[in-house]
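4.2 Preliminary Data

To establish feasibility before requesting continued support, the project team ran the inverse folding procedure on a target of 213 residues. The structure was first converted into the token representation described in Section 3, and no sequence information of any kind was made available to the design step. The complete token record follows.
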């Protein structure tokens, strides 16, 4: 079975892990404080999950989910993720992360920064504009009327396709924004951010998003 390496065991990482295990994935999850701090979470997740270091989670995963505070993105291990698809959930909260002029000025995107840090990986945006608790609560079967939609973006079609497939398994429709350079459309404070929306509504919200806030 496919193994997902999850780097970051906060609200989003834990919820992705819960749904992934429910769907039959194996999960190797990590945080910055050490695997011993994840004992209770791994016990809850059951035998398909184990805790590890970030480097170990990166190496173990067939693909990875990076869900850490943006200010810590340079701590993500590079070599173990080479050649792998990396789903990036990061958002820019300057109050927490400090000011990043390239983001403030509309010259970069959060996922683009991670792609620069992981030059041999295939980064795709995912799960960044949904509240953590809704990852396990809002999914519905394909074809459900008014099914919620989430966005992805990547410079690699196969990475966007993986996120699209995972979204569907988690119970969401998807909209592919395009390249990572366009992923700002679903970042913080834009119309598509953390609201429930259908595929059509998401496309509309993406189309009217302002480049800078």
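Position-by-position output of the design step:
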């Amino acid at each position: 079975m496919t193994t997902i390496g999850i780097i970051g065991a906060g609200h989003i990482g834990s919820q992705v892990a819960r749904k992934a295990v429910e769907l039959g994935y194996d999960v190797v999850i990590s945080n910055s404080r050490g695997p011993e701090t994840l004992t209770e979470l791994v016990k809850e997740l059951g035998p398909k999950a184990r805790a590890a270091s970030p480097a170990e989670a990166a190496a173990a995963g067939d693909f990875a989910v990076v869900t850490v505070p943006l200010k810590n993105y340079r701590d993500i291990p590079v070599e173990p993720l080479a050649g792998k698809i990396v789903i990036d959930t990061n958002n820019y909260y300057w109050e927490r992360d400090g000011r990043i002029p390239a983001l403030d000025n509309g010259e970069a995107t959060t996922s683009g920064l991670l792609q620069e840090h992981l030059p041999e990986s295939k980064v795709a945006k995912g799960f960044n504009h949904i509240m953590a608790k809704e990852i396990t609560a809002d999914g519905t079967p394909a074809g459900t009327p008014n099914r919620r939609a989430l966005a992805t973006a990547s410079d690699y079609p196969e990475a966007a396709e993986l996120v699209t497939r995972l979204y569907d398994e988690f119970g969401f429709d998807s909209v592919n924004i395009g390249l990572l350079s366009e992923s700002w459309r679903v970042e913080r404070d834009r119309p598509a951010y953390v609201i429930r929306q259908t595929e059509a509504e998401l496309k509309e919200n993406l189309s009217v998003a302002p480049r800078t806030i």
